[in-house]
Amino acid sequence: MKPITVLLLATILTFAVVMNANAQTAEGIWLTANMTSFKTGETVKVVVNAASATPVQGFTFQIRYDPNCLRPVNAASPIPGMNGLPLPQLTGLVDGSYASTVPQAINGVLAEVRFVTLGACQTDLTLESAALAIRNESGFAAPLAGVTIGQKNIALNIDKEVIASQPDQPLSGAILPLDPPPASSQNVTGWLIALFATLLVVAAMFVVFKRLRLGSTTTPKVPASAQAPILQIRHGPHAGKSFALQRLPCYIGRDTVNEICLNDPHVISQHAKIFTKDNRYYLMDLGGETFVNGRAIRKSSAALKPGDVVRLGKSALFVFGS
Questions:
Q1: d(CA 271, CA 318)
Q2: Local structure of residue 199 (DSSP, 8 states)
Q3: Does the predicted model carry a pTM greater than 0.70?
């Protein structure tokens, strides 16, 4: 019986070592909170955590919240060298992005996000999406493959009792403001171009997985008197690319027959189209979930002007410019 016992113990030990190694090398991102019960006026501290055996050069996350219950304040990453990259914030969705010029080891807190409670309610915080970025062989940033999202929902209970404002402990690391942008967007195009250049330098952008297929020769051209409008893709499969709309109408969707194909599970086959009328540009919703500057467009059209932020589905985001 002794040889059998020794063999059994060796098998168990080998299995335990393998399981422990897999646990240590698993790539994952998950959400936690310091507490789940709050009074009105208190600060909710939410932590985006990650474990990766591969050093990374950036990360992104999106947290959905109820704007009637919570107001986002800011975020910070304690990882040395990680810098916050401001993105246009949409009501109800925190959009965080960080990047580093050199690879950083991560195993723990990626970022701490703070919200202020606004009144009595029961609500959830949901980690809509998250990714880790590495530099690929071409020198561009690309998402790290095989990253799983673990705990993604935090249930909160907010009491109607109001407490006096308390000074928060200072955040450590690069602070990223999360306040929604002002209503005026006259300067949006300029700073987006500067941000795009910064993203290239720090290699924090996600590259295109499929090339855009521009329109056929049978579609009408943009009027000669008008400069071709530009779509600056900010979030989603083509993040970081700009596309000049030389021919209109331009159809956008997940199907490859569209002039702009977005391989996004939340974008429908033919999601929206951009067209011109009376020397103005318009966006038409074709049955998907479409927003212009945070306002839902339901099977109708909305005029587009430079600096307008358009969201298709949950995360495909672009800025219209000329």
A1: 14
A2: H
A3: no
